[in-house]
UniProtKB/TrEMBL annotation:
Residues 150-177 form the HTH luxR-type domain. PANTHER family: RNA POLYMERASE ECF-TYPE SIGMA FACTO (PTHR43133), RNA POLYMERASE SIGMA-70 FACTOR ECF SUBFAMILY (PTHR43133:SF46). The keyword Transcription applies. It comes from the Bacteria. GO terms for biological process: DNA-templated transcription initiation. It holds the Pfam family Sigma70_r4_2. GO terms for molecular function: DNA binding; sigma factor activity. Belongs to the sigma-70 factor family. ECF subfamily. It comes from Pedobacter steynii. The keyword ATP-binding does not apply. This is HTH luxR-type domain-containing protein.
């Protein structure tokens, strides 16, 4: 059964206008994990990221009467976390960026009756994870925000403070790089007579390209 996502704008209105604590708790549960992961990308330490995210939510509650102008609370909170994370980095300049822990991929191959299919699915995901790790920092961030968080070009542009055109360019570069990397895996698998695995993965990437390019622009 598909989970219905809460209406964040409606929650935000209840928080700001009605001082609704339950709506605030739902908002926190809906975004905290993603915001934490996003902050970790910048500050590299989970404990620091937790403090940053907690501080942002506390400020949102304390200043809720001044935040009625916010139309997209999700983007607003991502920008706030990014700015606070960068502020932390400037304060502690010896901190460097590291890659965050990957979440499970949004697409899956499921066949509970065949253990070999499950092993194949895990292998495909592992190879895609490894390919994503090879992306440049900005392209990787754009790819994750769109693919994993389901954000649109304009939202990602606002969060990263770049133009929607740059978001599109970085996304195209990410997909092109992934195709190159995965093609090399395909050649290795072909030599091992296991080419169907990588053929499936490259096909998925092509479908993902269509979805990301044409369904996430607006």
């Amino acid at each position: 059964m598909k989970l219905v996502k809460p209406d964040l704008s409606a929650l935000w209105t209840k928080i700001c206008v009605e001082d609704d604590l339950k709506s605030f708790e739902v908002l926190y549960r809906s975004l905290a994990a993603r915001l934490l992961k996003f902050s970790v990308y910048y500050v590299s330490q989970k404990e620091v990221a937790e403090e940053i995210v907690s501080e942002i939510f506390v400020k949102c509650w304390e200043n809720r009467k001044d935040n009625l102008h916010v139309l997209n609370p999700e983007t607003y909170l991502f920008v706030a976390v990014k700015n606070q994370s960068l502020k932390h980095i400037r304060k502690y300049s010896n901190v460097h960026l590291v890659e965050i822990e990957e979440q499970p991929q949004s697409f899956q191959f499921r066949d509970s009756t065949d253990p070999s299919k499950e092993l194949e699915r895990k292998e495909l995901h592992l190879k895609l994870d490894q390919a994503i790790d090879t992306l440049p920092a900005q392209a990787k961030m754009v790819f994750k925000l769109i693919k994993e968080d389901g954000m649109k070009y304009k939202e990602v542009a606002e969060i990263l403070d770049i133009s929607p055109r740059t978001v599109q360019t970085q996304l195209f570069r990410a997909i092109a790089k992934l195709r190159i990397v995965l093609s090399s895996y395909y050649e290795l698998d072909h030599k091992k007579n296991n080419s169907s695995n990588m053929a499936n993965l490259i096909l998925i990437l092509g479908i993902m390209h269509y979805f990301l390019v044409f369904c996430r622009q607006f």
